[in-house]
Design goal:
This protein has seven helices and six strands; from the N terminus they run αααααααββββββ. With about 250 residues, it is α+β, with helices and mostly antiparallel strands. α1 runs antiparallel to α2 (about 35-55). Keywords: Membrane, Transmembrane, Transmembrane helix. This is TIGR03943 family putative permease subunit.
Length: about 250
């Protein structure tokens, strides 16, 4: 039973991987440059897993039978039923988790575990080139967060207006500030690093839930709270709730 459980779990995982690749949702877990490689390897692994069913040596069955004896599955054992029941429940849990429940993006729960704007590799090491005509519409959360991290002063941001989209995460040190947040993914969700642009909006907790997606359009100004860690913030002219974009991460 244990041998087949492993093969079945492998097939469930591989099926989920191929399905995510074909539906375009694999981007929720890995960088797009690895899509083709991952799907091809999943197909190869799936073929090998199916071959395990077809060509498993008969002697293995006897060995497996011996394993089951080791787990107390011999006839008449009081607890012999636990092993097969546990295997079935494990397989059901894998089907529910990988094939039935919808895939989801990283959230503020992950932000709380990592350092927002704390990774130099997540932010561009070199400040993005500034457009000659003052059109910053193409700037992303990553671009603005990089400029803020570069130490540019209030005079630098005085004539600049940003439009950024991301999910809401709280500032741990200033209750009047939240961040428009995105994750930078270098390889996969495991190495994703949160970045964000601070928004000064007292009472935001009453209007916007954490993890909800918003689009903020605003100019940069000095933070009215001089004690805040965020010296320069967006003081929004408008905050519009929006839906999660098809590509929630930045690269």
């Amino acid at each position: 039973m244990s041998r087949w459980q492993g093969v079945v779990l492998s097939l469930i995982g591989l099926t989920a991987t191929i399905w995510l690749g074909l539906s375009g949702q694999l981007a929720l877990y890995i960088h797009p440059r690895y899509f083709v490689f991952t799907v091809i390897m999943a197909v190869i692994a799936g073929v090998l897993a199916l071959a395990a069913f077809a060509f498993a040596p008969t002697a293995q069955d006897g060995h497996e039978h011996g394993d089951e004896h080791e787990h107390g599955d011999e006839p008449g054992s009081r607890w012999g039923w636990l092993w097969p029941v546990g295997s079935v429940l494990t397989i059901i849990a894998a089907v529910v988790a990988l094939l039935i429940l919808p895939p989801s993006t990283l959230t503020t729960a992950t932000v709380a575990q990592r350092d927002l704007n704390g990774s130099a590799s997540a932010l561009t090491l070199k400040a993005p080139a500034l457009p000659g005509k003052g059109d910053y519409s193409a700037f992303t959360v990553r671009d603005w967060a990089s400029l803020l991290r570069s130490g540019a002063g209030q005079d630098f941001f005085a004539d600049k207006t940003a439009t950024v989209t991301g999910f809401v995460s709280a500032d741990k040190t200033d209750p009047n500030v939240f961040f428009v947040t995105r994750f930078v993914v270098t390889c996969c969700a495991v190495d994703a690093q949160p970045i964000g642009v601070p928004v000064y909006h007292p009472g935001w907790q009453n209007e916007y839930k954490t993890d909800s997606w918003v689009t903020v359009t605003s100019s940069f100004r000095a933070n009215p709270n001089a004690a805040s860690r965020e010296a320069i913030v967006l003081i929004p002219d408008s905050i519009k709730p929006t839906t999660q974009p098809a590509q929630p991460y930045v690269y």
